[in-house]
Amino acid sequence: MLLLLVLGLCAIGNLPWHLDNYDQAKQAYVPYEIANGGDWWYQHTPHGRTATKPPLAGWLCLPFYWIIGSWDLAWRVPGYLCTIAMLWLLAREACRVLPDCGTLLVICAFGLNLLTPRIATLVRTDMMLTLWITICGWLIFRKIDSGRPWMRSEKWAFFLAMLAALLTKGPILYAFILPGMAAFWFLGPKDRRSLVWSGWWTWLLPFALFIAWLVIGCSANPEFYHDVVIREFMSRFDQSLKAYEKQQPIWFYFPHLLHKFAPWSLLALALPIISGNVRRKIMSDPGTLWLACWALGGLLCMTFVPSKRVDRIFPVVPPLCLLLVSMVSACQCGKRVRAWCGAAVVVAVLAVCGYFLTIVWMGYRNNDDALVRFGREVQAVTKKAGALKVGVVEGRDEPMVIYCGASSYLRANRAMRAWSNGELDALVAPERRIEDPSLLPSPTLDSGPISKQSETRYLLFLRPQ
Fold first, then answer.
1. Contact of 451 with 458, CB cutoff 8 Å
2. Which of 238, 252, 258, 321 has most Cβ atoms within 10 angstroms of its Cβ?
3. How far is CA 182 from CA 118, 147, 229, 364, in A?
4. SS3 state of residue 371
5. What is the rounded distance in angstroms from the CA atom of residue 437 to the CA atom of residue 442?
6. Are 87 and 107 in contact (CB under 8 A)?
7. pLDDT digits (tens, 9 = 90+) for 14-50
8. Is the dihedral of CA 101, 106, 111, 113 positive or negative?
9. pTM (predicted TM-score)
10. Measured between alpha carbons, how far is 397 from 418 in angstroms, rounded to an integer?
11. Residue 16 to residue 369: CA distance in whole angstroms
């Protein structure tokens, strides 16, 4: 029952669906551009800049679009399936660590917080990246916990997960894995330290393939280096390169993780404080120590990266969930710990369900998907009118070109020339970009003041038959 509740929350957490915030339009445009004849390796943003993420997440959306025929689902199904995969992986491991209630505890900890239901269907790469990082950390956990050397199949699995992470969001995965490995090398038992290392080729070959993608992009496109290397990567460490980003204090992640991962964060903090058995297990059990090093190492490393945003630390949540289960298994206070865990489940169900149901209700009440509905209306009207060539003038709302079903934005002067030359059957434009209304017929559709970026209105013009 709780599993169905978690899956339901993850499915509805972002309703009504739209692309108006969190840079979702940029990620959504990657498979959209490929499907409209764009390059498979290097894409653009809706406004024509170089896409700053590698293309794997976009590739994985395309089969779902070809099968389902709906971009709304195709953009979100991969992230949702990654959520299910992590629930299965964590539940499987938790059942082994704590057979009687580990599965229930880890499902609730991973699913009933303020991060997972939001990220599951957000059109971004965070959930997919977290899956690849979790697979890498989990494989290391298996080796350390069992004390057995790496098998060839496990090395290949690690290699593929590393490559997938690099092709999803670049080298950010190293910030979540390497600090924990270094910490375990110094703190772990000598006979297990070498087991954190899967072999040079499993690390160097994925990195070499990613560098090849990067070098080819820089050599083929002069803007690639500035947009991807400087604005996307280097700006993480020098915020002057993105002056519009708000600077956050160094402790930014700690209170946010405490809040977003509550009540599980409070339980994870309380158990080592009140139980000597938990403290002893963390220091004496290699598997539990690795989970602590993995989670805290990633959190501390991201803390010292100047550019901060709450969703960037989501990859520390899976190891924290497993660490919580391991700590509960070490407690010998029996009924008292079960009562605490039960109370945490009840609080999480009430708080998280209440929060997301309120957010969804407010989203529908405030018409958060108004631009989406206007775009659907534009597509329906143009299809009925037989308009084959639809142009969209660039405005402040980045996803409008996707909503209206056009392949790319047009500059205002280019759009007016195309209209005058009879190259367009329909034109969608923000009102402020129309310099000479006399050149256009009366608008067929008027969006009204629905823009979230201060556009007065969007207008649809159809060429008279």
1. yes
2. 321
3. 32, 18, 27, 47
4. helix
5. 9
6. yes
7. 999 999 888 899 999 999 999 999 899 999 999 888 8
8. positive
9. 0.94
10. 22
11. 6
